[in-house]
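As a warm-up, study this chain.
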Amino acid sequence: LKKVPERNKMRELLIILGLLLSGCATVKPTITDYKIFTKTVQNSNSSSNGCKDKSLKIAQAFSPSSLMSLNMDYMESDNRVFSYSQSQWQESPNDAITFELLKNIRSAGIFSSVEASKSRSKSSWILETNTEEFLQFYTKDMKSSYVNVAVTLTIIDTKTNSVVSTKTFSSKADAKTLDAQGGVEALSAALSEVISQNIEWLDRVCK
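Now compare it with the structure written out below.
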């Protein structure tokens, strides 16, 4: 009868040891952060005067809720959307698109100044951005992948609150690899093309 408590203690020790071992065996997968990078657009066709007498403020982009998170989504051929489990955005696509537009339009030198939406300075125009699509797709056989980027830009005159001009830009690019990295590289390339089209459009509007 005296051995019964010892057996119970041994059983408890084995249970605790098993829990500790199972906890040690659980390894969280490494999550890789990705960032959008675009090629800086050089506007060699800029007009002599352009909008040098105007200032532009880049409003925060409007996007679907899925583009405001860090989740990296992709779509299969049957319209099912998934998220990569071991990859995520360093910053939301919504913020990245806004920043890349600001950086490139400022670099193009079309306006007297280009400021972010949080700037307290007054501007002649405001550029509103509506991101309609920014997604990686896989074909039905899962043997190839591509991305689509579609953005609508609208220039608003701050004095009259009227629309100066509006236009939708889109670009498609193939992914070189069938993974998150391939998608990021293709999205960066497609966004670069969209921004290049945007710079040309802004230059025409200013003439």
